[in-house]
UniProtKB/TrEMBL annotation:
SMART domains named in the record: HTH_LUXR
Domain spans labelled HTH luxR-type: 197-262
InterPro entries linked: Sig_transdc_resp-reg_C-effctor (IPR016032), Tscrpt_reg_LuxR_C (IPR000792), WH-like_DNA-bd_sf (IPR036388)
Protein name (Swiss-Prot/TrEMBL): Helix-turn-helix transcriptional regulator
Source domain of life: Bacteria
CDD domains tied to this protein: LuxR_C_like
Keywords: DNA-binding, Transcription, Transcription regulation
Gene3D superfamilies given in the database record: Winged helix-like DNA-binding domain superfamily/Winged helix DNA-binding domain
């Protein structure tokens, strides 16, 4: 690790930890240690939407995509679901956290086989490889900073990930400082979130709802069969019945119906 990079990291991060600077400087600090095209930082909360802290995406469409992520598409994102599944603090390649057959195609989530998880949120820059730095905080929260590099670069060297792992305690201290300010200032309507677990519960059987949730998280029928220890034809039958009850016929329509269900009544 170049000495100049670590010095820039430590100076910028120190200003965040002592309260002189905010989340924008935090992203600058981590980006000095791990050079990248863009980054965003959020606080993941149990049973609630992420709290946006800051991002360094350059254009308005990309920034809008980050906001789309924290308000809707986060629940079908591999990193967020891994956190909800109990993933602890560490440094992770996003591609390593994706389900076996990740696929999403909607007006809100665009299929793109060039992407490492085969989809992207509209407006999100194409051809990026993301690394997520996660730290466990108080009250079940997990701080996350996502760092994106162009796919044209030669992968993500283990040495770069090791550099981030070596400073996780310092990153956690910065997140604790940012979290104490951000959570206290949240508007009341942002303290709770509709849950993926509630989607379709009023018309689907428990097994159908479970399978629909796994589809939304990117699992294939085979993966669902293996995970739930039920026969593949049974999975397909439950899926077909659930689609009929929801008034849809394709996976694209399923994702659209789910995202539509999250919108306030006046916006549907």
């Amino acid at each position: 690790m170049p000495q100049t990079s670590f010095q820039a990291f430590s100076e910028k991060l120190a200003s965040v930890i002592d309260g002189q600077s905010g989340a924008d400087r935090f992203i600058e600090a981590v980006s000095a240690l791990y050079p990248c095209e863009a980054a965003f930082a959020v606080l993941n909360r149990p049973n609630a939407s992420p709290v946006y802290l800051a991002d360094s995406y350059a254009d308005l469409s990309s920034k809008a995509a980050v906001q789309r992520y924290v308000t809707s598409t986060f629940e079908i994102n591999p990193v967020h679901n891994a956190i909800r599944g109990g993933l602890g603090g560490g440094v992770y390649r996003m591609a390593d956290l994706a389900p076996d057959n990740w696929s999403a195609t909607t007006a809100d989530v665009i299929a793109d086989d060039a992407e490492e998880i085969s989809f992207r949120t509209p407006g999100w820059p194409q051809g990026l490889r993301e690394v997520s730095v996660l730290v466990e905080l108080e009250d079940g929260m997990v701080g996350e900073i996502s760092l994106a590099r162009a796919a044209a670069s030669k992968g993500i060297p283990d040495a770069d990930l090791d550099a981030l792992r070596s400073v996780l305690p310092l990153i956690r201290s910065a997140f604790l400082r940012l979290a104490s300010n951000s959570i206290n200032n949240l508007p009341l309507d942002q303290t709770k979130s509709r849950s993926l677990a509630s989607f379709g519960n009023d018309i689907l059987s428990p097994r159908e709802a479970e399978i629909i949730q796994m589809i939304l998280k990117g699992h294939s029928s085979l993966s669902i069969s293996l995970s739930l220890d039920i026969a593949l034809p049974t999975v397909k039958s439950h899926r077909r019945n659930a689609y009929a009850k929801l008034g849809i016929s394709t996976q694209q329509q399923l994702f659209h119906a789910y995202l539509k269900s999250r919108e306030p009544e006046g916006e549907k």
